[in-house]
User: Fold this.
Amino acid sequence: MTSDMPLLQVKNLEKYYDQQAGIVDWILRKDSDPVQAVDGVSFRLDENESLGVIGESGCGKTTLIETLIGLHEPTSGEILFKGTDVSTFDKGDWKQFRREVQMIFQDPFNALDPKLSVRETLEEQLKIHDIDERDRRIRDVLEQVELSPVDNYLDRLPKQLSGGQKQRVSIARALIVEPELILADEPVSMLDVSTQAAILQLLSDLIDDFGVSMVYISHDLSTVSYVCHQLQVMYLGRVVESGATEVVLNEPKHPYTRALLSAIPIPDSEAERERTELPGTPGDPINIGNGCRFRDRCPDRMELCDKTPESYALSTDHHVACHLHSEHDDQGDLNAVSSSGDVANGQSISAGEGGDEL
Amino acid sequence: MSKVRFFLKRITQTVFLLWLVLTFLFFLFRLMPGDISDILLYQGADPDTVAEFEESWGLNDPLYVQYFQYIYNFILLEPGYSVQTNEPVWDFVKMNIFNTFILAAPAITLAYILGAVIGTVTGTKRGGKLEKFVPVPLLTIGAIPEFFLAILMIIVFAGFLGWFPTSSMIDPAVANQYSDDPWWRIYFTQSFAMHFVLPFTTVVLRYLFLPSLIMRTSVVEVLGQDFIFYKRVTGLPKSARLKSIAKHSSLPVITLYPISMARAIGGLVLIETVFNWPGMGYALVQAVLARDFATVQFVFFVIAAFVIVANFVIDIFYSVIDPRVSLDD
Amino acid sequence: MSDDPLLEVENLTVQYKTKEGMLTAVSDASFAVSEGEYFGVVGESGCGKSTLLLSILNALDSNGQVTNGVIRYKGEEIQDLSEQELNQRIRWKEIAYIPQGSMNSLDPLERISTQAVQLAGLHSDLNEEEALTKFEEMFEIVGIDPERIHDYPHQFSGGMKQRAIIALALFLEPSLIIADEPTTALDVIMQDQIFKHIDDIVDRVGTSIMLITHDIAVVFESCDRMAVMHGGQIAEVGPVTRIDNEPHHPYSTLLQEAFPDIREPNRDLSVIEGKPPRQIGETDYCTFVDRCPWATEECREAPPPLERAEADRSDHFVSCFRKDDVREENEQGTDDRKAPNQKSGSLANDE
Assistant:
């Protein structure tokens, strides 16, 4: 489908958490600085498309997905699902939304109720959303996730399944209500490498053959190419680089993306990989003021980095928020992408943070 | 810095809670149905007597004046006069408070020490005989209502066996004998010791199951911790490992200690009544029957204050043994 | 360096007592680690690599036991030593350990320096002052500010805790360090730094390291020799270059093909169906048989012996009845697969 309306559009999304304030702070009237978990993230996701959100733990990718699914109220910014702002949803809209948007969790070992058989797990989901023809749907979906012959699996409990099989059941549970969007949180990171490939293949088939769109969260760049069309690399709440998967993997421009890529071990006894040389660890996105958030660890730090970098378009398909890639400073604003509406169909772009500048 | 902050925070919280309890008690007793003068004098007393009474008790002052007076008096440990004896409440109940503490504090402490030992043994020897046979009787005893347990103890050890006296804290004759000595003298008599054994044992038995079972669970959990395994592989001898296990597993037990202590002090109302033990619970019952609300109020406050202060002390203690506490606030 | 291996595992079988009977976790495993060698053990969850490591550390759960075979350390059989002997002579002095759950391996109630001083008191002649000075040096090696040795574990981030654990392993200069998935739960960048430190140790200190991991890429990159384990059996042992380029065991081959390579983001990944079996009683067949595309009836009848992969090589062993057929097929496939490898060489260092 090629309508102009994206399935999911996120504009300048911010999610700040208040730090827990104690009674002493309360008496002293001390305001604590918020945790800027997600800070100005924008993207659009069309039907049949998949977007990978990449970053280390603490980069805000989990908060992003939890905000997208409605677990948190955004601090500011908009989430448009099929063109409607989710903040205007009423109860019925949310119910519809919760059917059309499904989640797959990282840990297949804890995501399933240990007391429910495969059939009951799937049935429960159908009951919640009031869907008929349960038996047929259950069988179909199990075929779809390649748990066949179906009769062998219907009455198994989670403990009688391997990790990969459990993750297939998780996927089936998401799939059975025919969602339009699946949010997948590191779905293969806890699986053995021998089954990882099968799950990646399955997820990729969902997108290509069944018309599902996907937001795929991962810390591991080596597997995203199997599932994602687009990538966004996040660092401390902000998107530092975004673009088509091959472009980002083949021509990473942001120093952080490069570090991430160069840190991945190569399964080749003769390859001479230079180990990444990145000092320190990401801090917390608290009270970090202006400037590039990566600057303290960046090998290419310049004076300019104390100013928050705009997102520069290197091509229609590739954006990077790094001063290294502004042609030169005065033209920065011309190249910067300021808002998300005017970008060509199917491109995801990263945040423009005009308001942040001094 | 953060330690200071932590203390400051906990002190503020403690003071705030004590104030909250005081305030609550103040309004609770003023919201009770019935007119105070009716309760304290007698129904249908003549209006002049009532007026005089209200005047002398400050009942005509505006509520906020009464409230501040009340708080002020409490801080000075002058929580009013008992209508039973017309003595100040403090003079009236201080011995009872002491009697309760000498019963509860050593009994609960012993229960916790015994419990920690039982828990460690049953927790480290999993699947052994002890683990099978110890928890059930402990739980059974713990499940018996305390007054019933007290009666059983009296029937068996005082009635059938006749080893111990049935009730009260001391033989009146002995008490008389020491009436001119300092107040603490009677606590060092054989008569007191004999009277002490049954109520003390009842409290220990009644409260033994909780620390035993918590300690056992805790030991089992700590045994499965990575750092215990790591210690083993680093070649730390068993004795050193056991010490570490005990330290870690006692943390949750320590948390429970003040809670049990507070529960015991509240729960002693029944045990004290059965044993005729002149403690706080005993005083409370008498005061309630006599509608001596100043005393009731004060005893309530002492029990609540004990819980709050005990928790404060434990928190401070905790922050000393566990370095994570003060930073994670 | 002597010819005698530092650690020698011979026909090792380890079993756990369970309700269903004796569960065999490691079956007839043999390999050796020489002095100064960086040795990798690779396999999926359930392959027996953790049990193997526990038996070398003499730290099996109480229901587990070595039922056959020997573990020799510097020529001495250590599998039957008493706890006391182990504590006095072997543990930490000779064999140190880097655990998987490093996040929780440091006692949270004790300063890290206290834990180090305690170890020095047990296993060395260092006095407290000397121990602290030495531990500060270790912190320097792993890249933490030496002043922080007196911190409590909770004041460290995950990566720092892991480095502190490495410092503790190095502390008393053991001859062998056994590292069990030392980077699980760490982010890729931190993982890379940790492995950099471990590489440094091998190069500078000369300690032997036995690395247990599921990550074949890490082993290929860093180790000298490796063992591939499946279902409690050693499938293949040899130099990493050999197992990378000329794997003889079907499992080694498939495992490599299943592993994603960032240089070839679109390569098809192979899937190995099923999982290692849960073996009650003696293992009298090849545990890979149900997952193996090359399997025949022969593979079910007896466990394949660990034999020379090729008659003229004394450093490469494989346990597969059909190793020659597998090798032949691979020979044809390998060329196609290896070619694009060289092309997209150093993607990360682009520019």
